[in-house]
Amino acid sequence: MSDPAVNPGIDPGTCSRCFSPLEPGLLPGEGQTLTQYERDALWRLFVCIGRCWKNVPKDSTGLKSSWLEFIVAKTETSPSYTAEYSNAVLVIDELIAHCGEASAFDRLFFENGIPTGPPLTGLAHAKKYVIDEFIRMQIVASGFRGFGGTKRGKNYNGFVRGSRYNWTERTRSFKDPQKRT
Q: Which of 12, 10, 41 is nearest to 108 (CA)?
């Protein structure tokens, strides 16, 4: 697991949290709570995901209330993801200290060297239980409506449904800003 060839550019000697061995299942988080620092760090991760994929305008600000509801549901309902979120913050902080913020997020998203199979390290847990979930939430919450920056779909409002979203039509007619009516 700690072979640098498997984990390109991440030094196991300086990133001990990334390579700390963990059991493959969800870390037990019942009865724990996130600190404000951890919530802020997780929001920064979510914003960086949106920036990386040019998924949403204004640094995901329009998704923050939905994201906060998601975090509450994942930490206050069993099974709690609180320990996974705390681990992810430690892993991200360690990577940022080791290689800088931009490079740390690039490695987390693309060049992490995590082998397929169950997550057996702190880094693998952060990727499977937090980063991948946040990527899915970005797509579900704003999804194809925002994905791709300026070349994104113009008529799709996302596929989140429920009482908060029932006033929004699933699709809308595209009005070309170049044409005058």
A: 10
Residues 6+ apart with CB under 8 A from 126: 84, 87, 88, 91, 92, 108
pTM over 0.90: no
DSSP, collapsed to helix, strand or coil, labels residue 121 as strand
Calpha distance 56→64 (Å, rounded): 12
Mean pLDDT by 10 residues, the chain (181 residues): 48 81 93 96 93 76 86 94 96 92 88 86 94 87 54 51 52 65 57
Contact indicator for 65, 160 with CB cutoff of 8 Å: no
Give the other-Cβ count within 10 Å of 49's Cβ. Answer: 22
Contacts of 148 (CB under 8 A, 6+ apart): 53, 54, 55
- Type of residue numbered 144: F
Question: What share of the chain in percent tops pLDDT 70?
Answer: 73
